[in-house]
C-alpha cells in the first residue's frame, strides 16, 4: 500500500553554545511521518527527541533544514503563520500536562479556537476521555492521569490530524500511564497520525515504526510488524 507522507523533515540542525562548547542537539536529522501511522521516537535523555518534536510542532526554530507538512515548508513561515499552524494544525501533549491551573477542566478544553469553543463538542471530548463528571474541577483536584487526559482532550479540540506527544506517560504511574496509552492508541485507530516521544522501549512496541535517536542523530529506523496493544505493554 502506498503511504502518504504527511511530514517530511530534512537535514535538521540545531546547536547550542559556540567555540569549543558548540554542541548539536540535532545533527542532520531527516525523518518522514506517514499519514495515520503511530510513530515512536525513541532515545535516551538528551538525545534530541524533544528538540525534534518541538520543531515539528512549530515551537522552535530550525537552524537549517526543511520541514514539509502536507507539502508546506513550515520553516519558511512567518510568526503569524506559525501561530496559526500551532493553533489549528497540530495537537501537542506534554510530559507535564501544561494545563492552566486557574481554569476548570472544561475551560482548559475550550481554550482552543473556533470550533473549540463549541460546548457540546467539548463535552463529547471530555466524555471520550472519561472525564465528563470532572468538568468543573480545577487541575489541582485531579490525579496526574486525569490531568493528562484533559490535556489530550484539549489537544483534540481542534481538527488537526497530527498529534505530537512528548513523553506523555513520563510523569504518571503505571495505571494512569496505561489509560493514557489506551486513549492515544484509540485515537490512532480512529485515524490520527501519532508522533510519540519516549525513552521507554516497551512503550515503543506499540508503534508501527520506531525511529531511534542518539546524540542528536537518527541511528535506526525499524518497522514494527506486530505492534502490541496498550494493555500488553509493561514498563
Ligand atoms: N535551550 C537549551 N540550551 C542549551 N542546551 C539545550 C537547550 N535545550 C536543549 N539543550 C540540549 O540539547 C540536548 C537535547 O535536548 P532534548 O531536550 O531534545 O533531549 P531529549 O531527548 O528530549 O531528552 P529527555 O529524554 O531528557 O527529555 C540536551 O543535551 C540538552 O541539554
Ligand atoms: Mg525531552
> How many H/I helices?
7
* Bound ligands: adenosine-5'-triphosphate, magnesium ion
The fourth-level CATH homologous superfamily is P-loop containing nucleotide triphosphate hydrolases
One letter per element, helices H and strands E, the order comes to: EEEHEEHEHHHEHEHEE
CATH class annotation: Alpha Beta
Strand arrangement across the biggest beta sheet = 6-7-8-3-9-10
Structural class: alpha/beta
Low-pLDDT runs of 5+ residues are none
Helix content: 25-40%
Sheet with the most strands, sense and barrel status: 6 strands, mixed
> Count of DSSP E strands?
10
Shape: globular
Commentary on this structure:
40% of the residues are buried. The longest helix has 16 residues. This protein has one domain: P-loop containing nucleotide triphosphate hydrolases (Rossmann fold, 3-Layer(aba) Sandwich), CATH 3.40.50. The mean pLDDT is 93. By secondary structure, it is α/β, with parallel strands linked by helices. It has 7 helices and 10 strands. Helix 4 crosses helix 5 and helix 5 runs parallel beside helix 6. The strands form 2 sheets. It has a 6-stranded mixed sheet with strand order 6-7-8-3-9-10, sandwiched between helices. Helix content is 29%, strand content 28%. It is globular. Bound molecules: adenosine-5'-triphosphate and magnesium ion.
Amino acid at each position: 500500500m502506498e503511504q502518504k507522507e504527511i511530514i517530511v523533515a530534512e537535514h535538521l540542525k540545531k546547536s547550542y553554545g559556540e567555540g569549543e562548547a558548540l554542541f548539536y542537539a540535532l545533527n542532520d536529522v531527516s525523518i518522514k511521518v506517514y499519514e495515520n501511522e503511530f510513530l515512536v521516537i525513541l532515545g535516551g535523555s538528551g538525545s534530541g527527541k524533544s528538540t525534534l518534536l518541538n520543531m515539528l510542532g512549530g515551537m522552535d526554530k530550525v537552524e537549517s533544514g526543511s520541514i514539509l507538512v502536507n507539502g508546506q515548508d513550515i520553516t519558511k513561515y512567518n510568526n503569524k503563520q506559525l501561530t496559526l499552524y500551532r493553533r489549528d494544525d497540530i495537537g501537542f501533549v506534554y510530559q507535564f500536562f501544561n494545563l492552566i491551573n486557574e481554569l476548570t477542566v472544561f475551560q482548559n478544553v475550550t481554550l482552543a479556537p473556533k470550533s473549540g469553543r463549541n460546548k457540546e463538542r467539548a463535552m463529547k471530548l471530555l466524555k471520550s476521555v472519561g472525564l465528563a463528571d470532572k468538568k468543573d474541577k480545577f487541575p489541582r483536584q485531579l490525579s496526574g492521569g486525569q490531568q493528562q487526559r484533559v490535556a489530550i482532550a484539549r489537544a483534540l479540540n481542534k481538527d488537526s490530524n497530527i498529534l505530537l506527544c512528548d513523553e506523555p506517560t513520563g510523569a504518571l504511574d503505571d495505571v494512569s500511564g496505561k489509560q493514557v496509552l489506551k486513549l492515544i492508541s484509540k485515537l490512532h485507530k480512529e485515524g490520527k497520525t501519532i508522533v510519540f516521544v519516549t525513552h521507554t522501549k516497551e512503550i515503543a512496541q506499540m508503534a508501527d515504526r520506531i525511529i531511534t535517536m542518539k546524540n542528536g542523530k537518527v541511528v535506526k529506523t525499524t518497522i514494527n510488524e506486530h505492534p502490541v496493544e496498550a494493555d500488553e505493554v509493561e514498563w
